[in-house]
Amino acid sequence: MKPDPQRTVTQDPGKLEIEGRSIDFVPDHERTDKLSAQGPFWFVGNFTFFTMTIGFVGPSVGLNSLWTTIAGTLGIMFGTLFMAFHGSQGPHLGLPQMIQSRAQFGYRGVVLVLFATLFVFAGFNIVNLVLMMQGLNTLFEWGPMQVALAVTVPATFLAIMGHDWMHKTFKWSLYLSLPLYGLVTVAVLMGWIQDAPAAAEAAPDLGFNWTGFVAQFAAGASYNIAYAPYVSDYSRYLPKNTPSGKLIAAVFLGASISGAWMIAVGGWLAEHLHATDVLVALNSVGANVAPQLGSVVVAITILAFLPVIAMNIYSAKLTAITGVDSFRKITPTVKVRVLAALAVVFLQLGVAMSIYTSGSGLSVLNIYLVVMLYFLVPWTAVNLTDYFFVRKGRYAIPHFFLPDDNIYGHWGSRGLIAYVIGFVSMIPFFTIFNGPDEVYVGPLARMIGSVDMAWLVGLIVSGVAYYVACLTLDLEREERVIRHIEKTSPWFTTGDGW
Q1: What is the pLDDT of the chain when averaged over all its residues?
Q2: SS3 of 326, please?
Q3: Which of 70, 85, 104, 428 has the CA that lies 20 to 30 A from 195?
Q4: Torsion of CA 441, 446, 448, 453, to 10 degrees
Q5: Closest C-alpha among 422, 70, 86 to residue 224
Q6: How far apart are CA 85 and CA 251, in angstroms?
């Protein structure tokens, strides 16, 4: 068979065309990305106004900005370890992140985690859209539809154009956001911004407490763990011989440095300006530095954030295609990618508009995102345990695309059982709040001061349960299949042969 021309991408690194691949394997001759781009890419992924809101957690539970920065930095670093190790799978396997999960959960069983992943991708964009609708309405009286169109149309275009365009625009986002947030940081450090006096009079004294410290640590850790289903989507075009250690270090440093920086700024805004709307707070910072600079700060903040919105759309459509393909075989053409992206966008817009008009829906959506993160944690534990400790990176890649005659089966009982065990073990540690109001706090969570440690319990229990379940796995049989593929199949050089 000749390769499908719809899956062919440009070989001219200086020319950008619409990406031809989606959930399919990327052959070696198309692996033109550079390792040096990974660090800046993931730096920009966290270098956003939304990450600042993670720093609002500390002051809300009694921490001052210093302790918020320390706890948030340690949490971000811990969570980034998991996403960084997922990144090493991309160049080794040449696949999007969630396709590889068919090895642990089965060709159809992977739908369990695909649903959670899809709704987290969409959910983050919905939260971001609502935050922008609220902030821009307060500052400039923009209507929600104006904001939705101004943000969604260019982001959708980037997501449809695909991988190369994403990396290109992330570079421009870095050029825009680095001086912007550099200025904000300098303004904070130099004391150019005065505390909000009226709010300060009624505000409680902030300092240190262990409950608040652990809560901020957990918020930072779970925030970057949520990036785990993304990473291979943007590292799979790296050459197969990319050193794993260097790639892991690049992803780790990029995502953790920017995340810690933004949490520190967010903690200061929350303590000194008592910020609850991050765009309004940034406008205030800019306006205190120079007249009209607040509007410029907000405009650049939104513009630099568009590639992140596109990233969520891009990964969501890959996840949606994988889910459909698990039950009805589809050819991953450009048309399929476009339709999947548009479906994701219309879903996000509909929910975002509904939440904005309801006035109180954003807190409900935040609860929903916390629950979805609970669903993701057992997946990342199972996936990393399989890749590094069980199968150790050895997979029959063509079998990920065979609905019936594949060595991983329709339903991966070991992965599914480990996932369920891990999730159930988390329930007593669930900590879900709607603002100050308690929604559900598990009995064991209540014993430790209502601090959310469910994610840590899920990571440990799911990983151990999966490793134990795989002690009876016939790895020798799988290795024979893999060696046969490597010796006889042209699949790895052409990317063809579905």
Answers
A1: 86
A2: coil
A3: 70
A4: -20
A5: 86
A6: 9
Report which of 292, 359, 309, 314 is spatially closest to residue 124, judged by C-alpha positions. 309
User: Residue written as tokens 């997979």?
Assistant: 395
Rounded to 5°, the CA angle 177-232-260 comes to: 40
Give the three-state DSSP class for 459.
helix
* Global pTM value: 0.88
- Cβ proximity of 184 and 285 under 8 Å: yes
Helix (H) or strand (E) holding 494: helix 491-494
48 backbone dihedrals φ, ψ, rounded to 5°:
-140, 165
Residue 392 backbone class (left: φ over 0; alpha: ψ -120 to 50; beta: rest)? left
Name 245's Cβ contacts closer than 8 Å, sequence gap at least 6.
Answer: none
Looking at the DSSP bridge assignments, the partners of residue 438 are 433
Contacts of 163 (CB under 8 A, 6+ apart): 19, 21, 234, 237, 314
C-alpha 241/C-alpha 261 separation (Å) is 32
Q: What are the DSSP calls for 46-93, one per residue?
A: H-SHHHHGGGGHHHHTTB-HHHHHHHHHHHHHHHHHHHHHHHTHHHHH
Q: How far apart are CA 59 and CA 268, in angstroms?
A: 9
Give residues with Cβ within 8 angstroms of 127, minimum separation 6.
Answer: 50, 362, 365, 366, 369
Helices vs. strands in the chain: H and E counts, helices first: 21, 2
Phi and psi angles of residue 100, each rounded to the nearest 5 degrees, phi first: -65, -20
Residue 433 β-bridge partners? 438
Contact 72, 220 (CB under 8 A): yes
Tell me which DSSP letter residue 3 carries: P
Residue 153, both tokens? 């149309």
Distance CA(461)–CA(403), nearest Å, equals 30
Q: Are 261 and 52 in contact (CB under 8 A)?
A: no
**Which of 357-366, 375-384, 486-495 has the largest mean confidence?**
375-384
Within 8 A by CB and 6+ apart from 461, the residues are 378, 381, 421, 422, 425, 426
Burial class (CB in 10 A: 0-12, 13-18, 19+), 141: exposed
Half-sphere exposure of residue 100, counting CA atoms within 13 Å on the CB side?
33
Structure tokens at 62: 């009694």
183: tokens are: 């200025």
Whole-angstrom Cα distance, residue 322 to residue 99? 7
Counting Cβ atoms within 10 Å, is residue 379 exposed (0-12), middle (13-18) or buried (19+)? buried
- Beta strand pairing call for 431-434 and 437-441: antiparallel
Which pLDDT tens digit goes with each residue over 470-482?
Answer: 999 999 999 999 9
Return d(Cα 248, Cα 233) in angstroms, integer: 15
| Rounded Cα gap, residues 467 and 446, in angstroms | 30
pLDDT tens-digit map of 276-325: 888 999 998 988 888 888 899 999 999 999 999 999 999 999 899 999 99
